[in-house]
Amino acid sequence: MHRDRFTKIVATLGPASSSVERLRSLFEAGADVFRLNFSHGEQDDHRRRVDLLRSLEKEYKHPIAILMDLQGPKLRLGTFAKGPLELTKGQKLRFDLDSAPGTAKRVPLPHPEIFKAAKPGGILLIDDGKVRLRIVAHDDKTIDSEVEVPGPISDRKGVNLPNLVIPLSPMTAKDHKDLTFGLSLGVDWVALSFVQHAHDIAELKKLVGGRAAVMAKLEKPAAIEHLDEIIEQSDGIMVARGDLGVEMPPEAVPPLQKRILAACRVAGRPAIVATQMLDSMVHSPTPTRAEASDVATAVYDGTDAVMLSAESASGDYPVEAVTIMDRILKSVEADPLYRRLMDASRREPEATTADAISAAARQCAHTLSAAAIVTYTNTGSTTLRAARERPDVRILCLTPNIHTARRMTLAWGVHPVHGEDAHNFGDMVARAVRVARKEQIAKEGQRLVITAGVPFGTPGATNILRIAYV
Known about the structure:
There is one protein chain. The chain is an alpha/beta fold and 470 residues long. It has 3 domains: 8-72 and 170-335, Phosphoenolpyruvate-binding domains (TIM Barrel); 85-160, M1 Pyruvate Kinase, Domain 3, CATH 2.40.33.10; 353-469, Pyruvate kinase, C-terminal domain (Pyruvate Kinase, Chain: A, domain 1, 3-Layer(aba) Sandwich), CATH 3.40.1380.20. It contains 17 helices and 21 strands. It has an 8-stranded parallel β-barrel, surrounded by 6 helices. Strand 1 (8-13), helix 1 (20-29) and strand 2 form a beta-alpha-beta unit. Helix 7 crosses helix 9 (253-267) and helix 10 (289-300) crosses helix 12 (318-333). The longest helix is centred in the first third of the chain and has 18 residues, at 43-60.
């Protein structure tokens, strides 16, 4: 089941993609990672989907990664006494902690953290930014504001505060409960919403305790101020452009996407570009040309993966969305410009043995026109170093750790295979050749570039490069 492309596809599951037949179709169409969105659905729904995916994994004898996405805190208005309220430009409006239904003069905002963070000049965005107000005065219990962009507001509409740092943990009571449940199911990745600081990720990693890889969702401007520290603390990054586009000017998101992806490449962290990629395919069998270009741009930027949300979770054409995305990725990767961009954006390797071996493996594979680079790894670090180099051949990841094999399905260009570790040099070469032929990655007469560490089975000890004939 190796893919004829390097960039991976993440498909969100939901009502439109929960049957075994539909999951099989999504996998065969090209989905590499499946996302469980814990903002929706019941635990029994998620459990059933995990069980079906693990059955498919056994059927296809290929690792499948499962990403659980925690909901995080949701900041919302209270309710209104007389239904929706139409705001006009320049109107004065007070927000307070009183739970009484809102009126034309005051609105309940049941989040004390917002009042603690409020500052004159701060911005309040309501309903995904459709309504905008500026803070003019505040205390611990009230916020006085003026409407800058008018429109209707109503019960429980979402609130965003783009230029304020909210003293709020990204983990709610629901998230703690969901995390315990997800880890019991054996999910491979855990994505954290509302990340503002690196210590948000550190807290989650303590809770996870190594049972899954941890991904930071970048959807708050505050996170961008601490980008390098968040990337360093995380195992992967999701560029959540929908929320970023609410809290930042739309024109700021494309260059920020490029900046995040470049930083992830340097750090060797897998990155996902997400939100509204093929949004019109929720109800249309084909995407717009602009959406196809958007997906292509993320690939040219060097992302590890692109993600489908409502398109595959609740849309009318989930399989078609994966199929189209697969075709776009292949088209971009066949463009000579793509290879030039990947080569031009490569950084000098760090002065370590492992980085030197990984850089040399890429160069050898290119010079010899090898069929693949084979990495022996236990934790995945060797494979991620190879992927950071963006070689022009696939990376065959051989690992004795099934959890590592599943996590590596997200990484650029990686085809993971779970099996025994090598026992000696001869076994290392023979096993690599045997698996490469079985997985149809290499044919007789081709060469493989193999990296491993001695002693075998020692994490992070990449110190060997071998060239083998198939």
